[in-house]
Amino acid sequence: MTSSRVLSGIQPTHGSFHLGNYLGALKQWVDFQEVHDAFYCVVDLHALTSNPDPKELRQYTLASVAQLLALGLDPAHCTLFVQSHVPEHNQLGWVMECMTGFGEASRMTQFKDKSSKVGNERIGVGVFTYPMLMAADILLYQANLVPVGEDQRQHIELTRDLATRFNSQYGKTFVLPEGYILKQGAKIYDLQDPTSKMSKSAESLSGLIELLDSPEANAKKIKSAVTDTGREVRFDAAEKPGISNLLTIHSILSGKSVSEIEQEFEGKGYGDFKSAVADVVVEYLRPVRARTLELLDDQKYLDQVLAEGAAKAQAVASKTLADVYERIGLIPRA
User: Fold this and answer.
1) Measured between alpha carbons, how far is 221 from 307 in angstroms, rounded to an integer?
2) How many CB atoms lie within 10 A of CB 109?
3) Predicted pLDDT at 302
4) Residues labelled as active-site residues
5) How crowded is the C-beta side of 102, counted as CA atoms within 13 Å?
6) pLDDT digit string, tens, across residues 132-179
7) Which residues contact 116 (CB under 8 A, 6 or more apart)?
8) Which contacts of 201-210 are long-range, i.e. CB under 8 A and separated by 24 or more positions?
9) How far apart are CA 269 and CA 229, in angstroms?
10) Are 16 and 67 in contact (CB under 8 A)?
């Protein structure tokens, strides 16, 4: 029996997820589907804020779905769907925009960061309203838990504020969601800049471990990872961020504790340690890559999974939206 409902989403902005995506969020998606009523969404509408190439967006969306299945999401145990297949997201998104103050939206950190880089004249309005659509994504499904990265915490707080505001003004309608931030391993750092989170927005992809990269490419990246000038394999995030990042990756993927790995490499150099990390990562990702490529060759199956997921999602979303519309005074269609 499920204890509560979980909702989370990921953008299809690249051809491959990276290890930071997996260890920071997707790994827990797989765990949660066994104990919660889990709804997982590829948020293609959110991806439009970056003005993607249409052909690439289609490819990336299918690649995202295939990777999620390859990583262990099971359509029998969760609802996996694409955001644009459920139009209620846009419809509730508009209601959330009307509930949000301009100053409130202006304080969102991600908007401030992005607008400061390109300027207010060049940034799309969709970046400004992104958090309201994200609130709609969550509230449509009456989610109790929302597994997100630390950088999304502010958006969860806004979602709770909007739900509370709506409930106060129109009567109890929405469940107040809780953000679930994974503690250990929530932040995997860039191999070339171990003080920055592993991210597709990095200047170079050489610091990313991509799930669909060849084993040879990922092994080379790990062996070229930036470390300090010492030789001791020891966890010290402040003094040895590069080695600490590799220890974290090894520990999570191998199941060994950090102290066990430290003991294993006592008296050995960084070269031996990096080779071992490369072996662990390559072997862990090998079946994921193989299964993803297999699924991408079976378009019929992917279409079936998404059609069934959209139907299950819409059954929940349409009820929530109907309740919202009735409470705010919109007359139902005859």
Assistant:
1) 38
2) 12
3) 98
4) 114, 197, 200
5) 1
6) 999 999 999 999 999 887 778 889 999 999 999 999 999 999 999 998
7) none
8) 208/18, 208/19, 208/20, 209/18, 209/19, 209/249, 209/281, 209/285, 210/16, 210/17, 210/18, 210/19
9) 11
10) yes
The tens digit of pLDDT for each residue in 182-238 reads 665 557 899 999 989 888 777 778 899 999 999 999 999 999 999 988 889 999 988
**CA gap 255, 248 in Å, rounded:** 10
The pTM of this model reads: 0.91
Query: Minimal CA–CA distance to 159: which of 183, 182, 175, 181?
Result: 175
